[in-house]
Amino acid sequence: MTRVALLGATGSIGRQAIEIVEANAGLELVAAASGSEPIDGLAPLTQVGGDLTDLLDRAEPDIVLNAVLGFAGLPATLWALERGVTLALANKESLVAGGELVLAAQERGGGLLLPVDSEHSALFQCLDGRRAEEVDSLVLTASGGPFRGRKRGELADVTPEQALEHPTWRMGRKITVDSATLANKGLELIEAHFLFGVPFEKIDVVIHPSSVVHGVARFRDGAALAHLGHPDMRVPISFALTYPARAATPVPRLELAGTTLEFEAPDLETFPLLRLARDAGERGGTFPCVFNAANEVAVEAFLDGRLSFLGIADAVDEALAASDGAPARDLSELVEADTAARTVAEGVSA
Ligand SMILES: NC(=O)c1ccc[n+]([C@@H]2O[C@H](COP(=O)([O-])OP(=O)(O)OC[C@H]3O[C@@H](n4cnc5c(N)ncnc54)[C@H](OP(=O)(O)O)[C@@H]3O)[C@@H](O)[C@H]2O)c1
Fold first, then answer.
1. What CATH fold (topology level) applies to the domain 284-350?
2. Ligand 1 mean position to 175 CA, how many Å?
3. Contact indicator for 6, 31 with CB cutoff of 8 Å
4. pLDDT (tens digit, 9 = 90+) per residue, 193-203?
């Protein structure tokens, strides 16, 4: 029996994870956490808000599914990897913001890091433990979001309701807006760099509207392995929770007849957050942390009606310009960089 601690149990990923756990006799939910929603009785141990590592200390799980939203998920990510506990990571923000610290924790504790993000789960499977020198490059696919094909001038007045209408994935509000701005693909670019140790110039992003191909790994012999499937997060959640087995899920099989696969280059003029993320990742240090923090604040301001859609990129740009990006030697220095970036972004969003 695998003892699962589920953090972010009330969210989009959290609810789908509960479905997977309930359908699988080999999985047992021993602890659950949310940010503010009541979850009494959901698991033997529950916690609403507060320090999630307290709950993890008490629960002693075999696997932590971190589906918390945002930078708040970082302590739990570090907790699992430091202790050699398997981490199923949906909370990409913790790896983006704390990349070096997260990898150092994994190095010390030896915890297995299994990506839940569908693109990274796909790449993890395509790479299948291949040596770095065999890998030529990686490709992350992006749906392009609800505003694909529009030009910058057409996005000045778009509303949160329009940004929340994602064409292929049903997700939480923050990641749905991130998909509309392409910030999500920027976060995923940095996530892939840390997960797979591949340099940024060898990670491409391509727009693929139907979201059937989740990721492609290209190898030095000219072969390219792709991972295909319906856009349904229960697949990568189940893969991570039952790894290395592949447990059955209710997701229908993919029929190829009638499935068309289209790809196009992203429009970086209209969606500058992807370019800003790549730049932040390449510069390293705390620039990815600053990118993430400013984006979190700006997306919230956009959803509250305090900031325009195009203002999200402006807020992130300003926070990056105001930062020296000095590397964080420990968690408290990272929290400092995060807080400073939030202050700049809040100033832009006020
Ligand atoms: N949704 C997807 O399909 C998808 C796909 C790939 C990756 N991800 C990633 O998975 C993570 C979760 O996304 P989501 O779409 O599931 O978000 P969501 O629907 O907004 O849910 C967020 C969850 O995090 C909890 N939470 C927020 N702050 C917390 C805190 N300080 N302590 C404990 N719990 C806290 C929320 O609790 P309350 O309900 O109480 O606020 C909720 O359970 C994000 O990092 C996202 O990028 C999501």
1. Rna Polymerase Sigma Factor; Chain: A (1.10.1740)
2. 9
3. yes
4. 999 999 999 99
What is residue 132's DSSP assignment? G
Rounded Cα distance, 338 and 40, in Å: 32
From the CB of 93, is ligand 1 less than 6 Å away? yes
Please state the CATH superfamily assignment of the domain spanning residues 2-116 in this structure: NAD(P)-binding Rossmann-like Domain (3.40.50.720)
Quick one: CA torsion of 33, 36, 37, 43, rounded to 10 degrees?
20
Give the pLDDT confidence of 119-144 residue by residue, as tens digits.
Answer: 999 999 999 989 999 999 999 999 99
Query: How far apart are the CA of 74 and the centre of ligand 1, in A?
Result: 13
Domain boundaries, the chain: 2-116, 129-231+246-267, 284-350
pLDDT in tens, 81-102: 999 999 999 999 999 999 999 9
The helix (run of H) or strand (run of E) holding residue 319 is helix 309-322
Q: How far is CA 196 from the centre of its chain?
A: 14
- The Å distance, Cα 225 to ligand 1 centre, comes to 30
Backbone angles phi, psi at 230, to 5 degrees: -65, 145
**What is this structure's pTM?**
0.98
